[in-house]
DNA sequence: GGTCATCCGGACCCGGACCTCCGGTTCCGG
DNA sequence: CCGGAACCGGAGGTCCGGGTCCGGATGACC
């Protein structure tokens, strides 16, 4: 693969993230190519279809979330791990606001099934540790937790300050000391 | 206005709610007409444009939320009012899941500015009362509150049980007793 | 029951967005 | 330095969905 080809691929992905973040799911291909300083032909050579482009973005997104999760898991205290992951997630959401609404369009399993599974595994560990420490509300499963993270993203996209939103969610997730 | 015309208008609105709830923002006009048992011509006579149809749905939605808010305000205890409104909202969201994602597309002020303002006023009252009673986290404004409700809707759409999600949110909103 | 205005329905436009294709250009092995 | 292969760019093709229009039917008033 030629050097400029790889460079173009990166520029396209970067431009796609920006345009999707600004315009949401309705973002079009031609403006993405323009912002990348590239023709649509080049865009379609790297990503044969629109869904493929979104899929590549999703792969990066999942990788980033998984990395955040692992950094959080490195913390010894289970509840600190939870707060850290929620904060990192909230920050990432506020950065890529509009991006969030395009991923539900394509089924998660279609593009990166193994990455998605890896993410789920880590998340399950995080939740179980917090449960064992008695820090997390017992009804909250990994599914629930993930769903609430999606909600957190929507709240942030709606304009809520991400620190405040994260604090509220964390307070709600914390087990009530009996 | 002829009797069947009014009946058709109602049937179209009902069908639109259903189809939008199922398909999300990508829902198309022709399936809506089919489900209403009506041709597209009739649809466009009642709602001259797609945005107008969505606007009408939004008007109904705002009216319902305002009604919920007023019922909640009738409660004497300020915190009970908050919990009641959140629960009603969560239930409504779980009913009209996909509907939520189509409203951000058109600016709120465009269609029903006065209804929207009335809703905001009621919401401000709800929040102030809860603050005065020391029940609500002091940093939470009406804006924040509304944003968190949007997030709640997203979490529910993502598959979280609405009762659990509402409980988590409420626990997070509650002022921490010092 | 007759007449006419109103309404219904679906067969057509039309614009726009995704995708293709080919001539010109740029980078690597000999 | 040079041949060629890979790559770039943008002008279209195609399809699809929102919106129009007119012949036929239907309901209201006398």
UniProtKB/TrEMBL annotation, chains A, B:
MF (Gene Ontology): DNA-binding transcription factor activity; transcription cis-regulatory region binding
One matching Pfam family: TetR_N
Domain HTH tetR-type positions: 6-65
InterPro entries (alphabetical): Homeodomain-like_sf, HTH-type_TetR-like_transc_reg, HTH_TetR, Tet_transcr_reg_TetR-rel_C_sf, TetR_SbtR-like_C
This protein's UniProt keywords: DNA-binding, Transcription, Transcription regulation
Ranges annotated as DNA-binding: 28-47
Protein name as annotated: TetR family transcriptional regulator
């Amino acid at each position: 693969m030629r050097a400029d080809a790889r460079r173009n691929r990166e520029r396209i992905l970067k431009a796609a993230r920006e345009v999707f973040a600004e315009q949401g799911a309705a973002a079009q291909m031609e403006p993405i190519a323009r912002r990348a300083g590239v023709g649509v032909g080049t865009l379609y050579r790297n990503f044969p279809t629109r869904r493929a482009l979104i899929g590549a973005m999703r792969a990066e997104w999942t990788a980033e979330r998984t990395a955040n999760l692992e950094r959080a898991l490195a913390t010894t205290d289970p509840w600190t791990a939870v707060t850290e992951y929620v904060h990192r997630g909230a920050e990432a959401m506020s950065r890529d606001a509009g991006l969030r609404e395009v991923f539900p369009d394509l089924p998660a399993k279609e593009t990166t099934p193994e990455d998605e599974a890896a993410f789920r595994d880590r998340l399950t560990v995080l939740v179980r540790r917090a449960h064992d420490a008695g820090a997390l509300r017992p009804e909250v499963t990994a599914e629930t937790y993930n769903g609430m993270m999606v909600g957190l993203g929507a709240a942030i996209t709606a304009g809520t300050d991400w620190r405040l939103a994260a604090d509220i969610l964390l307070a709600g997730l914390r087990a009530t000391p009996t």
